[in-house]
Amino acid sequence: MATKIPARNPPSLLARSLSFASSLAEKLPEAPSPANSAIDVSDTKRLFASVPTASLLHSLANLSAMAAGPLVDVGVAALRAALASEGQILRAAAIGVARATVHRHFCAGEGFEDAGHAVAGMWEEQGLRSILDYGMEDAEDRAACDRNLAGFLRTVEMASSLPPSSVSSLFHEKGIRNR
Fold this sequence. Notes:
Elements: H1 44-47, H2 53-66, H3 69-84, H4 88-106, H5 112-126, H6 142-159
Helix pairs in contact: 3-4
């Protein structure tokens, strides 16, 4: 059964198109126009045609492992222990495993540039829109707050180059603390 995804956001959603010019972001080319604006998720051959088999197998292995609750618990405990230890080799190994598995599967990259390339690639290759989410680190001092603000502003500027209905934002007041 095909699932239809509307081409436009319903009016009930609070969506705002960012249209200001950006010196950091390149304007993306028009996406390939499919014959039908709905994505047919039942046609997996077409849906995953541009994804290499090795990437699909890697995703299958990751998701299968993450579906096993006890295995996830052991992984979380091992990662916490490695990060708490003084040994740099153990810490580097744990971070490397996390990056190669969970981070690689769920994150578009480790930085602003990586995420921008991933979002642009999905748009150019498949015409898929993305949700760009900026995760702010906890800020303990003014310099950390300034770094977080600069990262957020760079993300907004990059998002201005995305198709109009691709961007949504949610701000949590609890993320801002007065000191």
